[in-house]
Amino acid sequence: SLASTAITCFTRGLDLRKGTEDVLCPANCPLWQFYVFGDGVYASLSSVCGAAIHSGVITNTGGAVRVQTLPGQENYPAVNANGIQSQVLSRWASSFSVTAGTKSTALEAVGRSVSTARPSTGKRPKKTLDKKAGNKDCKADIAFLIDGSYNIGQRRFNLQKNFVGKVAVMLGIGTEGPHVGVVQASEHPKIEFYLKNFTATKEVLFAIKELGFRGGNSNTGKALKYTAQKFFSLENGARKGIPKIIVVFLDGWPSDDLEEAGIVAREFGVNVFIVSVAKPTTEELGMVQDIGFVDKAVCRNNGFFSYQMPTWFGTTKYVKPLVQKLCSHEQMLCSKTCYNSVNIGFLIDGSSSIGESNFRLVLEFVSNVAKAFEISDIGSKVAAVQFTYDQRTEFGFTDFVTKDKVLSAIRGIHYMSGGTATGDAISFTTRNVFGPVRDGPNKNFLIVLTDGQSYDDVRGPAAAAQKAGITVFSVGVAWAPLDDLKDMASEPRESHTFFTREFTGLEQMVPDIIRGICKDFLDSKQ
């Protein structure tokens, strides 16, 4: 029979590698630390043992569980069962179900443990933890936005510093582990130290100890917006491809509005967590200008990004669950933004009616759209195809992985001149340019630029492109018939169809196209 694998309280569905796996859950896992999403069918983000207790397969005394991998789904529900409150998740890429394992397989598991079973945030056994490198399993660039307002006062400010210090220690800061900085929110925000300033826990603890209390209103919204915009630049030590996180500590409630700051943070690809302490009592609610301030600011309102502590006293038990959240990088849903997670293909009409000088204006338009995105090997990608009766791939998505190279490749496109077969060109692009990236992580967009009537059918090829997961924007100039443009565009057609009489009008469309891509990207993520 199959031998089971001993796992820990924190092993998640996505840590298991096989389609069906027999595991052995330990006894006495702390129920309040479990993250479980769904009911019966659980998002693979969930703790396996937590899901098994939630569904009644085992109790807290542990036992054998069979885990079956299932496809992802939408709307995992929140259900309270067997002492565990599962949480809502709007969508996830894979799921699992749990059934009772068999006892015979469980016996062989005693003493067998696997490397994936280690909780990703737990400290490694001392001998393998390279002090300087830090905890490599925790990928995060974190700004602690601490409360320095009169709300919290000097005494609790010091307790807050102690708590942040304990979180910093448990994170395992190091050159290859998490990096942290601190911003103090009060009347005006102040960046106390940046990510790049310290890469050793000892130094960070010293810097936290030295922080002075500023006092003033708790303008958390102002501080959050400032931190999202200014803190994570590459020159201040932010690292490419590492999730950006702001942990907002709030004693009571903010004096200003958090909604706009939350939107800005999401646009900048920052994951906002709110740790609210001593939240407003019933008598105090009248003084709070927006009771839903937490939901407005967090990355996603799914329960994962908000965290509550009743007071600043006795907070040690809250350290580890918070660290686990900060280290689960698959859950940083706001790291992906429309700027760093899209593939944009440009299909450029090279027919003879355009002429050399207007063709330059078309290329300028293409450059200006491409310029807005974060193009890199792990970010967004750009490709271009020129067409007449024939098609020519100017460059594919993987040919150039820096913005400068893409922009110079666009400038280097030579005008073909010829007829117009837009339908054929869409089919060619769907197959040859989008085909290789179809299963990649980025969302796919095609921008079709044309100045006239196509000699062939555009509706069929455009529908096939959309079916292959490509969102199509059509941009028409001069004699391009509106019916063709609408037939090519994705739904809702009005917001995906653009037209201008003159080639000089292309420039004004750039912001609307970028906004359209971002809106579609966000809608697909909800």
UniProtKB/TrEMBL annotation:
Name the segments for region: Disordered: 111-132
| Record's subcellular location | Secreted
User: Gene3D superfamilies given for it?
Assistant: LCCL-like domain (2.170.130.20), von Willebrand factor, type A domain (3.40.50.410)
Keywords assigned by UniProt? Disulfide bond, Glycoprotein, Repeat, Secreted, Signal
Q: What are the residue boundaries of the VWFA domain, all occurrences included?
A: 141-326, 343-513
Q: Where is the signal peptide?
A: none
Principal place where this protein is found? Answer: secreted
CC per GO annotation: extracellular region
Which residues does the UniProt record annotate as the domain LCCL?
Answer: 3-96
Q: Does the keyword Transmembrane apply?
A: no
SUPFAM superfamilies, from UniProt?
A: LCCL domain (SSF69848), vWA-like (SSF53300)
Q: Which PROSITE patterns match?
A: LCCL, VWFA
Output the superkingdom of the source species: Eukaryota
GO BP term, pick one: sensory perception of sound
Please verify whether the record's keywords include Repeat: yes
Q: What does this protein do?
A: Plays a role in the control of cell shape and motility in the trabecular meshwork.
PANTHER family listed in its UniProt record:
COCHLIN (PTHR24020:SF36), COLLAGEN ALPHA (PTHR24020)
Q: What is this protein called?
A: Cochlin
Q: Which organism is it from?
A: Emberiza fucata
